[in-house]
Amino acid sequence: MTALSFYLAGWLTFQLTGSGFAVAVWPSAGIGLGAVLLWGYRVLPGIYLADLLLHYASFNASDTLLDQAIFFLRPLAAMLQAWAGCALVKRFSVYPDELVSLKTIVLFFFLAGPLASFIPVALTVKALLLTQSISEKDKLFAFLSQWLANCSGVAIFTPLFFIAFNKSHRIWHKRLFSLGIPVAVIFSAVVMGYLLSQGKEFERLNKLVVNQTESVKTGFQDEFANYVSVLEAYKTTLDGGSLNETYFRLNAQTSFKQHPEIIQIEALKAIKINQGYRFIRQYVASNHGGKIIDVNSIPGINEKLTAKQMSVIAIGNQTYLVAVPSYEQGINTCDCIKSIIVSVFDSEAFLQNAIRRGKHKEIDVKLTDARNGLSSGSALGLNGDTEAFNALALSLTKFENVVIGTQPLSLKVTPNKNFLAEYYSWSPWQLLAGGMFLTGFMSIGLLMLTGNTELVAAKVDQRTQELNQSNRKLAAREQQFRKLVQTQSAIVWKADPITFRFVFVSAEAVSILGYATKQWLEETDFWQRHLHKDDKENVLSVYVKNSNAKNQSYDLEYRMIAADGHVVWLRDVATLVVEDGVIKELYGFMIDITRLKDSEEQLRLAASTFESQQGIMITDKNANILRVNKAFTDITGYSAQQIMGKNPRILKSGRHDQAFYQHYWQQLLIRDKFEGEVWNKRRNGEIYPEWQIVTVVRNNEGEVSHYVSVFSDITEKKDAENKIHSMAFYDALTNLPNRRLLLDRFDQEMASARRHGLFGAVLYLDLDHFKILNDSQGHLVGDELLIQVAVRLSSVLREEDTPARLGGDEFVVLLHANSESLSAAADHAMVVAEKIREQLNTPFVLGKYQHQIGTSIGVALFPEGQEHPDAVLQQADTAMYRSKASGRNAISFFQPSMQEAADLRLRLEQELRIAIDQENFILCYHPQMDAEGNLLGAEALIRWEDKVRGRLSPVDFMPIAEESNLILTIGKWVLMEACRQIRAWDDAGFVGMSCLSINVSSRQFRQQDFVGQVKHAIESAGIEPHRLGIELTESVMIIDTQDTIDKMKALKALGLSIAVDDFGTGYSSLVHLKQLPLDVLKIDRAFVRDILIDNSDAVIVETIISMAKHFNIRVIAEGVETEAQLAFLKQKGCSIFQGYLFSEPLTSDVFAESYLGKVS
To answer: Quick one: which of 419, 481, 63, 506 has its CA closest to 212?
Structure first.
């Protein structure tokens, strides 16, 4: 155990700070000391073995005999420190000890830390000097750092070791939380801070090495470029023919001085032999008279030389050949080498020269052949100190590839000892050392604190024993006193005057309050806790004020809570003895006065009962009111003066019939009592419910003398009942009707439909992929979606329709049965279903996100046969699943035949929406003429230009547009297009169009901002308002007449003309015509068509014309197709005509060419 703990602690320390001598803390020193103190000197061999293993990494079999001897002797210092520390603390009697006193703690750590580690650390530093692991100048720092590290290790880890393994003293187990955990936390925090600081330091050093590496690489390449320029100069001279022996040798000596790394320079003539060359030396110069290298002797020289560029060839471990070829004039191919300049250089000397010029003294550089791994030597550079290759230096080592000529090389750059001395910051180490030093002091301080606590606890135990002995003596004397008071009927007591804790109570305490005597004496704050809460503050204040007098006597009455919970009234006569301002004694006796207080309370209750919160009314035998209380006035609003002498029927609400009052009086006669719910009326007229109890009062002869009515307002109770009813019939999440209420309304709807021969529909809705949303986003998001779905459903339904939620994501819509046929019910159901689908397809905002869902809808119609509501719901459910099977987000009818019709209508509506988006509409213009054929105006008629079905008239698509609200978009387009066309004709120079009328639907006209839309269209087109006319149907005039009048007046104020289209086919009256500001009445074509053959139509037409003249309104006859019709109408006084007799509706271009004049 000792060896393992010692080794692991040391190994972790080396992992943290490295294996050098400058460690900031040495935990093994504290562990070794603790082990020897606990388990004796037998553990010393384990310490030796563990320390030997810790330094095994530095062992080298090739070391000197001295180095090897010191390796095996160095662990003896660790043994010596552990032995010395143990011997010193035992010698001065500070161990074995719990280390609780200040003196023993300080002496222990002085002896075991600074003193015991002094000699072992000195011996260790001497060993480092002998092995040259440190220099002479570093020995003081090495000694101090190791000495402080050992002291910190003892201060921190010896207490932790005792806490973990010392079982002989219980205090060490108690110190786990007060010392062990805090020290461990602080130690860990210091280590984390050191690691963060060390990481930042490594990043800084790494950037410096990267910059140095780039500088070395650049210097090396620049040096080689300079070197090559020398050879190029020789080549230039050789090509110029001015190179001779003297010139060559003089220049070679200059080159050797500038570049001492050059071994030789020679000029060779190339002779072509077969596929290769033979090189004949012309001039040669050798640096320092070295051996001349024969180029022809180099293996594969012809293959290695390249004619197109300079060649660099490795010819030795650190020797390279550089060849610069020269060619025949004007030819640059491998077949025409004329001569070459060859230089051989020593790469180690070359590299040294490059590093020297760059002044890189802090790094070691190694150059290797990147292709074959040949090295130019060992570590190259100006400083060969191998100390650079420690863990930090190796982690900072960088590799760079360089190419000289055709030769790839690799540079290995490692920071050496000079680099670390120059740039390494000791801040992380200082942080760690300082933190460990402070942690050690904190450990010692916590030892002192916990030791002092233990000493105080021991003194308390001693004092407690002394007090117990004194109390035993007092107990004997008090026993006689207790026997004396046990016979008294009152509770005789004595208490501590400070804490009010009882020290004696007589046996009567048990019979009066029910608490055992032991509980009185042992329970803390017994008296205070059982005082009645309303009396506690007053009673306690009596005992604490005026305590300066020598004696205080108190006679108090207060309540206490008995053991069974009932309240006991006590009279407490107490005496408080005070001496010199100090309370000495408190004693007294308590008498039970509960019965006396109960009597007083009953008298008080009798007087106050009449003023309770319930209304009370007392009448004589003839039901004349004699007396009421304040609650009666509060509830009914009648004061005693206002109600006295009157009969209670003044309170009747009118909600109860005669049978109710008969039962009311019958109960009084038979049972002398009535109890039940009665609805009465307050003085302000408000009707309210009350719960009333009426009791008959009889005299001694059994005759009725009075009636007493006690009642309370139960409005809140009724509201609660209504809420319960809502919970039973409505969905709690969405507040929609639930299945129970839906089926109830469905039963009624089904019965009404059968009774009146009408038809309705049920829509079964299921949200597509709702489960995926609910599972992925959570139930809260799912619930929010269901709530929003319920709101949207309600927004598109009529008041008489019923939306309901069956559960989960299933909804049902019950459409009121008001259709006269199944087909009409199906059409209406399809419109509503499409509205619902459109609403629910709009994205929902759920928190921060939008979510879009589809809705599968099934539709079933009723009644068909004798279906039960459940059967119709099942049909709708089946249709809904058909929608899901057909691809979801669809609408399906249960009846196949109606499904086909609904599909056709839906397809037409979808095509109409596309046509609106693509503006596949045009306006055609139907001229309005006078009797002589002059153009007076025109009506704009919309047409749908369908690619498949051709040009469609409004009768083919307007009904669907009306039902689906698309009419609003279409109507707005017609308004804007008509104004635009008027302006277009004006801009093109056409004249003669005085007024162009457009048809406006009732729904479009009912829009709140319709007048604003018209004004915007006119202003956007830039036309005169009188050139636009509005044609409305008669149905507009009978819905919200005042709104119609207001809007017509607003349009007239703008300058527009207003016409009633198809007059005579609706339900307008002469009153409406008189009120509305109309300009034109248009006779419907249905009357014009048969005026010559149907006398009734002729009379109607003649009446309309006559009536219009009376109201000063112009008349336009529509549908004029024959000359006979025209003659009849002219004869009756009609002056404006429109119909196929004059022209069919024309496109804008044809209409302009046919009817409009053009300004030249």
So the answer is: 419
Joined together, the tokens standing for residue 829 give 């159901």
CATH class of 486-601: alpha beta
Q: How many CB atoms lie within 10 A of CB 139?
A: 16
**What is the Cα–Cα distance from 208 to 214, expressed in whole angstroms?**
10
Least confident of 353-357, 476-480, 619-623, 815-819: 476-480
* Largest distance between two CA atoms of the chain: 169
Distance of CA 54 to the CA centre of its chain: 52
Return the exposure string of 845-867: e unless at least 16 CB atoms fall within 10 Å of the residue's CB, then b: ebeeeebebbbbbbbbbbbeeeb
- Domain range annotation of the chain: 2-168, 211-423, 486-601, 619-719, 732-912, 919-1154
- Fold (topology level) of 919-1154: TIM Barrel (3.20.20)
Which phi and psi (to 5°) does residue 920 adopt?
-85, 45
Q: β-pairing, 1114-1118 with 1136-1138?
A: parallel
- State the CB neighbour count (10 A cutoff) for residue 236: 14
Is the CATH code 3.30.450.20 the one for domain 619-719? yes
Tens-digit pLDDT profile for residues 740-797? 999 999 999 999 998 888 999 999 999 988 887 887 788 889 999 999 999 999 999 9
R_g (Cα) of the chain, nearest Å: 58
Which residue is listed with tokens 């009075």? 706
- Considering the four listed CATH numbers 3.40.50.720, 2.40.50.140, 3.40.50.300, 3.30.70.270, the one that applies to the domain covering 732-912 is 3.30.70.270
pLDDT at residue 455 is higher than 80:
no
Task: Tell me the Ramachandran region of residue 262: left when phi exceeds 0, alpha when psi lies from -120 to 50, beta otherwise.
Answer: beta
* DSSP assignments along 262-295, one per residue: EEEEEEEEEEEETTEEEEEEEEEEEGGG-PPPPG
Q: In sequence order, which ranges of 842-895 are alpha helices (DSSP H)?
A: 869-885
Query: Within 10 A of 876 (CB to CB), how many other CB atoms are there?
Result: 26
Secondary structure E strands in 88-241? none
| Strand-pair partners of 343 | 265, 322
What is the sign, positive or negative, of the torsion defined by CA atoms of 1083, 1087, 1090, 1093?
Answer: negative
Which of 40, 33, 41 minimizes the C-alpha distance to 111?
Answer: 33
- The verdict on pTM exceeding 0.70 is no
CATH topology of domain 2-168: Arp2/3 complex 21 kDa subunit ARPC3 (1.10.1760)
Q: CA 323 to CA 306: how far, in whole Å?
A: 9
> Do 248 and 268 touch, CB atoms closer than 8 A?
no
CATH number of the structural domain 211-423: 3.30.450
Q: Which residue has the higher pLDDT, 1071 or 842?
A: 842
d(CA 817, CA 752): 8
Q: How many CB atoms lie within 10 A of CB 341?
A: 25
CA triple 1013-1014-1018, angle to 5 deg: 115
- State the pLDDT at residue 384: 34
Q: Which residue reads 């066309």 in tokens? A: 981
pLDDT digits (tens, 9 = 90+) for 705-751: 999 999 999 888 888 777 777 777 899 899 999 999 999 999 999 99
Local structure of residue 1146 (DSSP, 8 states): B
Q: Is 627 left (phi over 0), alpha (psi -120 to 50) or beta?
A: beta
